[in-house]
Amino acid sequence: MKSGQKWDNGVKKKLPGCPSDNGIIVRAFCIEDYRAVIALWRRTEGVGLNESDTRRAIAAYLRHNPRMSFVAERDGRIIGAVLCGHDGRRGYLHHLAVAKRYRHRGIGRQLVNACLAKLRKADIPKCNILIFADNAAGMKFWAHTGWKLRTELQVMQIRLENGRGTGNDCPC
Ligand SMILES: CC(C)(COP(=O)(O)OP(=O)(O)OC[C@H]1O[C@@H](n2cnc3c(N)ncnc32)[C@H](O)[C@@H]1OP(=O)(O)O)[C@@H](O)C(=O)NCCC(=O)NCCS
Q1: Which residues of the chain have pLDDT under 70?
Q2: Which of 81, 90, 87 is nearest to 42 (CA)?
Q3: Domain span holding position 107
Q4: 32 vs 15, 28, 29, 35, CA distance in Å?
Q5: What are phi and psi of 15, to 5 degrees?
Q6: What pLDDT, on a 0 to 100 scale, did the predictor assign at position 140?
Q7: What pLDDT is recorded for position 4?
Q8: Residue 118 contacts by C-beta under 8 Å, 6 or more apart in sequence?
Q9: What CATH number corresponds to the domain at position 35?
Q10: CB 38 within 8 A of CB 48
Q11: With CB atoms counted within 10 Å of each terminal CB, which end of the chain scores lower, N or C?
Q12: Cβ 139 under 6 angstroms from ligand 1
């Protein structure tokens, strides 16, 4: 039997964080993944990066929200990633990305579902995302997977420190 599978009453089951039939593993995002993940985010349209995406900032985010963020991996290479956390009231997902050649195989949905399962376990009733208004393809993905656009809400923000923007800032 392959690793990542077990037999339970004659039924083959997949274990969390272990290879699925297509060899893709979804597992917790750890800081050692940073270099590969930032490279993926940098080449992904619809993902904006800023001062909250340095290695140090992502390490702090992962410490603050332990084992809630996920990567997808194939043959040891990172092909998808998402950040997830909560503030005790609402969950938030950031920077969901799947490498272009691996899209439309259910990986984005799997990454999101892994996060939502963690939020449910933490008794968080709702999860939000921020999305660039011009990301029509991203919007279709979220709508198709059950997310509702809150047209009655807008985001307001104040800057607390002298961080410098990149010109392609993430919307959060
Ligand atoms: C959005 C993204 C993560 C989706 O990843 P993916 O692995 O291709 O998504 P999945 O294969 O899990 O798709 C799940 C469902 O959504 C549908 N879907 C995915 N992308 C879609 C799109 N652009 N338009 C319409 N439907 C879409 C799939 O067909 C699938 O439907 P099904 O389950 O009924 O077959 C990927 O396209 C991406 O990285 N985009 C760029 C980054 C981005 O915009 N991220 C969101 C930032 S807020």
Answers
A1: 1-21, 162-169
A2: 81
A3: 15-144
A4: 22, 11, 8, 7
A5: -95, 145
A6: 98
A7: 38
A8: 67, 68, 84
A9: 3.40.630.30
A10: no
A11: N
A12: no
- Assess if residue 166 is contained within a domain: no
Structural domain count, the chain: 1
In angstroms, the CA 83 to CA 116 distance is 11
Calpha distance 51→54 (Å, rounded): 6
State whether the beta carbon of 37 lies less than 6 angstroms from ligand 1.
no
What's the pLDDT at 8?
33
Whole-structure pTM value: 0.88
**How many other β-carbons are positioned within 10 Å of the β-carbon of residue 152?**
5
Q: Is 47 in the pocket of ligand 1 (CB under 6 A)?
A: yes
Residue 139 covered by a domain: yes
The pick from 41, 113, 141 for probing ligand 1's pocket by mutation, whose C-beta has the most ligand atoms within 8 angstroms, reads 141
